[in-house]
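hi! just following up on the protien thing from before. the input was this:
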Amino acid sequence: MIEPAAEKLCRSVTFNGTSTNIEGETSSILAGVSLSGTQRLFELGGWRFEGALNADVLRQSQDSFREGGTNPLALSYDDIEADGASAQALLRAERAFTFGPDKSEVITRFAAGYGQQSVIDDRVMDARFAQSGASIELQGDTSDLARGIVSGEADWRLGDGASIRFGYQGEFGDGDRSTVRIGYAKAF
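and the predicted 3d structure came back as:
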């Protein structure tokens, strides 16, 4: 994956009791590689169990830029590169249920596992005050995130190519996050 992006940035600054916003524009390229693998493990009581591993490596390259305006706190930056990686290990279970006179099918899926997101480099950014030229080092976020992952999903096949899907995914640990999905699909 290679994804170029134009970015408009706004930085809020408070200094000696004065607050202001300083804006700038730059462009960057996000490049990454993703790998994933799934292995069927066993079946038990109509449930199919499988293990899954996912891994991603990302690099963001951002062009140098200067924040706009005449504010003495405006900064200019050299080119910036940042690298990161993430991995997940999951145990998944799936089972199909049929019911009713029309033999409607509901496919249920559950997963539980662990995810890790890490910064590969030190994320130090060299910057200069645009007007005075005085240089400073800014420290970007270097925190690693570790999360437990749980999810559940029901896919109700209605017939004639239509289905309704309900799902939940929760990530718990460093930076909790929950997602609920509801969808309808119709093949034509």
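The chain has a mean pLDDT of 90.
The longest strand covers residues 18-44.
cheers
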